[in-house]
Design goal:
The structure is a single chain. The chain is an alpha+beta fold. The chain is built from six helices and 15 strands. It has helices spanning about 10-15, 20-35, 85-90, 120-130, 165-170, 215-220; strands spanning about 35-50, 60-65, 70-75, 100-110, 115, 140-145, 150-155, 160-165, 185-195, 200-205, 225-235, 235-245, 245-250, 265-275, 280-289. The strands form three sheets. The protein has a five-stranded mixed beta barrel with strand order 1-2-3-5-4. Strand 4 (about 100-110) and strand 5 (about 115) form a beta hairpin. This is S1 motif domain-containing protein. One of its GO terms (molecular function) is nucleic acid binding.
């Protein structure tokens, strides 16, 4: 890779189309000034970094972004502040289609290839976020980076978060990949922030929505019957959706057989009990609807 400052850019760029020229001008500015660029993740590449008998350690993973014609590669250690390499690679594989910020750190002009760092862009985002005077309870724009069946990786204010059920939804979700998608923008509420260290350490997407349990007793009084959808089955428990984001934990009427009921079935449920200390509604499945 040639020394960037020794390149004759006028000669190299003279045949570029206007769109290509604009792309390279943005790259040069990011490299010279350390300013961030944005682009969607189009894939993950692996490259051999050294000859070693242990094949598990001779590959380096890269996020790939192609804004127009230039291939930008972000090495795994520069994709974020992860706890381990395994976590970094796992998240990278789920980031396809996610728009991310990055700073160009190296340019191979002859081969239309660049290396970049998402961590440097995150550091800039953190400084900008601290200037907004964040407080616990404030709302903050949050981006979904990757979604799994039971948890989600999200980014806000230059910080990445591993969010689980209690930070994501009020109701039980069988698979969070059906609800959250890479690149999606959500609103979250700041739960933990230290103004001294400027560390944002807790957010909740769930708390940005009204708590559906409030007023549920009036909307669905004891003994009422409701048409519900079975949303999950686990350890003998059946979860039915009373309304959006509000589940009813159900058991079957004695004449019913669990094998006859599947997730997605519509059923008739009788509301039996409210457990306010646990914020749980109990119900009984009477029959299919």
């Amino acid at each position: 890779m040639s020394n960037f400052y020794e390149l004759n850019l006028n000669e190299l760029d003279k045949e570029l189309s206007p769109l290509e020229k604009r792309e390279w001008d943005n790259i040069y500015a990011s490299y010279r000034s350390g300013t961030p660029l944005s682009g969607k993740v189009s894939g993950v590449d692996r490259r051999r970094i050294q000859d070693t008998p242990d094949e598990s350690h001779d590959q380096l993973y890269f996020l790939v972004v192609v804004p127009y014609r230039v291939k930008i590669m972000i090495p795994e250690e520069e994709t974020g502040f992860w706890d381990s390499r395994e976590q970094a690679v796992r998240v990278m594989r789920g980031m396809f289609g996610t728009k991310i910020d990055f700073v160009i750190t190296a340019i191979d002009r002859e081969n239309s290839l660049c290396v970049a760092s998402r961590k440097r862009a995150m550091e800039i985002q953190r400084r900008m976020f601290a200037q907004t005077n964040p407080r616990i309870g404030n709302r903050i724009e949050t981006q979904i980076l990757a979604a799994g069946s039971t948890s989600v990786i999200a980014s806000a204010g230059g910080f990445d978060f591993h969010l689980h059920a209690k930070e994501l939804t009020y109701n039980r979700v069988p698979d969070y990949r059906d609800v959250f998608h890479p690149g999606e923008i959500c609103t979250a509420v700041i739960q933990e922030y230290d103004p001294q260290t400027r560390q944002l350490s807790g957010i909740s997407i769930r708390d940005a929505e009204p708590d559906p349990y409030i007023g549920a007793r009036e909307r669905h009084p004891l003994g009422c019957r409701r048409s519900c959808i079975i949303t999950g089955k686990k350890n003998g428990r059946v979860y039915c959706s009373l309304e959006e984001n509000l589940d009813c934990l159900c058991y079957y009427s004695s004449m019913l057989y669990d094998g006859e009921f599947q997730i997605g079935d519509r059923v008739l449920v009788s509301v039996v009990k409210y457990l306010d200390d646990r914020r749980v509604i109990l119900g009984k499945i009477l029959r299919k609807w």
